[in-house]
Amino acid sequence: MLSPQAIEKIDYELTKYPADQRQAAVMSALRIVQTELGWLSKESITEIAQYLRMPEIAAMEVASFYNMYDLSPVGKYKITICTNISCMLRDSDVIVNHLKSTLGIGFNEVTADGKFCLKEGECMGCCGGAPLMHVNNTDMHEFLTVEKVDAILEELK
Amino acid sequence: MATPNPVINKTALHKPVVMTDLKGQTLVTLRTLTEENPASLETYLKIGGYSALKRIVTEKTKATDIITEVKNSGLRGRGGAGFPTGLKWSFMPRYFDGTKYLVCNTDEGEPGTFKDRDIIRYNPHQLIEGMAIAAYTLGARVGYNYIHGEIWQDYEIFEAALHEAKAAGYLGERILGSDFSFDLYAVHGYGAYICGEETALIESIEGKKGQPRFKPPFPASYGVFGKPTNVNNTESYTSIPWILEHGGQAFADLGVSNSGGTKLFSVSGHVEKPGNYEVKMGMPFNELLELAGGVWKGRKLKAVIPGGPSTPVMPAAAIMAATMDYEGLSKARSSLGAGSMIVMDETTCMVKALHRLSYFFYEESCGQCTPCREGTGWVYRVIDRIVNGKGKMEDLDLLTDVSNNIAGRTICALGEAAATPVLSFIKHFRPEFEYYIQHGKSMVESQ
Description:
Oligomer: heterodimer
Strand order of the largest sheet of chain B: 6-5-11-8-9
Radius of gyration of chain A: 17 Å
Number of helices of chain B: 18
Structural class of chain A: alpha+beta
Distance between the termini of chain B: 25 Å
Number of strands of chain B: 11
Largest interface: A-B, 46 and 60 residues
Structural class of chain B: alpha/beta
């Protein structure tokens, strides 16, 4: 069941579109439910589709097309690090290696305690602040150094 | 190393931001940066914001007069294609029985592009005013600003600015007491480069996979929910209030022939001070490089991708002789694109740089057209085997051949975009590729 809080937020998004275009809110609805539950299960996607009166498969298509939706559990903190050209030129691989060795996981893996997950992201459109990463799709951390990464991880622990 | 432009993390409309050096810049789209709380309505009003909108709705300025002014400004689409904005506006049907839509493309996903982010977080009201003026001109009743999903904090700033503008009567029903009404909303992507393509973006607004539509019909006749829609880039809309305050000619005069106004250049990579620089069109590249603090660590310049990876890479000598405008870069056999300068110093391995770019296009191909879906993967796998020491000399011709068979054979421009770095990197840096194939290791890193 979608929570009352999620429904309230989805209803706000629906005000942005004509009444006969409920499907348009699916991008936001998936984001809202994922933010609340941590990831998107098939059941969640079905409930969203039903609420928006759209075919389940169409909601699944959207959820699987955009790479910030997670269709499997990602732990409490999902760290997505950009390795694209502007970040690469400013040594994102140093940050990637540091994260992998500190957390003891590779890309798309979750730590044993379920706390951290590491993902390789594509360009986030903040290349002036390279190298950079974001946590749980929202908190952007720029101008990363090994020390700065340690401080961020410490804060999340 | 000099401090890069500081970035505020937990931003809100009224939190002050300190920018470093604005020297050498000509601020039009980021003109609130001189103020303490750049994103607030109060600040925008203080510098004369919303005066153009107010004048237009009060005087009931004719739409054709506004379009003429925009045509005179020489403003060209700032998202990369460089299509004249005034001309695009004239394609929208004047009379239509139903809702017409206005869309702003703030879906920056082309590597090296981060200019529109600074507009929505530092000067959101000028974008809102620009869109309201466009809506008045084109008869659009509803607008959407589609924002890159990764910059969530900035999305929230823009949405806060929308509420502020609506409460003050600059959006919504009967704007400023006139009979003009316009509703504007923020919507977001969630990680898909392809949604920067306008018809993929429209599909995404409708709650679908971001797969580009076949054109024609163009959005002006069949856009959001199948209704006439005008799509422009963030920087384009944000230039509009200034143009109507100062006149089209004044904007044109800021730039050079065929490239009116200022341009936001996103400078990233191997420079001392990466960040956005708003300068007059036509500025010589070396002056722009100087504003960004020059090549970092005292190293030599090797190459620059001037407008994002979908524009051809330029060796140092070519870019150092170029000016930063549409003609200047096309004469130098590249393109201005979105003004996304990726600077590479002498230590850069061009094979590895292309390896990363080719992975990006492979990852981001939407999968709709066979040449792009299969070709981008093929190109990536060939470069990957070169990087892993298993390349063959004939791979270079293979890469060229596959790329030439992607470009021009797809519904959208991602095909060309994916082919361009491959063709231009091999053209300008062929000996590096040959060395890698012969020795199984990077030429630059072996020196």
